[in-house]
Structure of Amidohydrolase:
Amino acid sequence: MKKLIIPLLLISGVSFGQTKLRPAIDKKANEIESKVIEWRRDLHMHPELGNQEFRTAKKIADHLRSLGIEVTEEVAVTGVVGILKGGKPGPTVALRADMDALPVTERNDLPFKSVNTATYNGQETGVMHACGHDTHVAILMGAAEVLSSMKDQLQGTVKFLFQPAEEGVYDADIAGAELMVAEGVMEDVDAVFGLHIASQMEVGKIGYRSGPSLAAVDNLEITLTGKQAHGASPWSGVDPIVTSSQIIMGLQTILSRNVNITQNPAVVTVGAIHGGIRHNIIPEKVEMIGTIRTFGDEQQALVHKRITEIVTNIAESADAEVDLKIEKLYPSTVNDPALTSKMEPTLTAAAGAENVIYMTPVTGAEDFSFFQREKPGLFISLGGMKKGGDPTKTPSHHTPGFYIDEGGFTLGVRVMSYFVVDYMGQEK
Ligand SMILES: [Zn+2]
Ligand SMILES: [Zn+2]
């Protein structure tokens, strides 16, 4: 019994000691709700692609300066970093919002429908906040306003990371969170928090998961070179088409026979295959490209090793030459287990226990993972679907009908602010 009682007392002692500023946060967050909505609508109407978030950055920087927050601009091209020093010494807590939009043409009929277009990779396209990063920026601008209103009582420093280019850019090797980390933004940080709006999760809900939560994403490129032959006499050549089909089927055994599926899923998808020109010619080359999704460094290493073995050994058995490239893009988003369990009471306090969902792993990826590789971090999902909506009929992220209900923004402002004051431990 003693063993049981002691941890319970410790847990309640910790959460009780951190609650002092929560009512003030709630009050201020409610007061600024209409401002947050206004900022978000303005950002939604004027979306900007990765590394081109000039108007967005200016809006953020102006707002932070108006609150007396120390601002650095042009971080990782178009990012903005704000420093809010509390009245008392303590840890540095970073809050992150990504700023970029996507090359998608909006189909929603909204008064604040996107008006922007751009050239993306040589193509004219509409630009849309089709992943909801406009809501992240507005929510973090709101949290900055809430936290700066109680600056004297904060025990530590808040670092606001407004990050460009989360969706990646085609014309730079390093961008977004990875570049911010390379520029040193995480050096003085003790913990980092972020959220993502979710178009298919009801307003009022928060989702989270401990450990690997979102996948690592890696690109796969395979070029097989055989020996061209007449289609009527395949024995005189080396057929890269047959070999490529063996490889595609072989890759699927990694997931069914090598990955421990009771722990985490993984995905290997061949998304394109090109080879050949007509019925009766066995071509010289076949090219395949695909995507790999894994959870955690250990699983990623295993899957990469098996891909390499299967591809090279099947090619060798067919007498074909192979060029295999695996390009690492974003690592897995791993929520630090100790930090996550420490912050669970914060999630419950912000949303109510019945609204906190323990999520299954998500095979999408997020470059928030680069921040988490430097310091412990927690990344949560925030509901953005109207109450009573059907997630199966609600447009997903990155689509022209993507839509976010504004009713969840205040919860976003509150939970980001709670993360700061709870982590700092206001009554120590
Ligand atoms: Zn996205
Ligand atoms: Zn996103």
Remarks:
- The chain has two domains: 2-213+332-424, 216-330.
- Residues 131, 133, 166, 196 surround zinc ion (ligand 2) (CB under 6 Å).
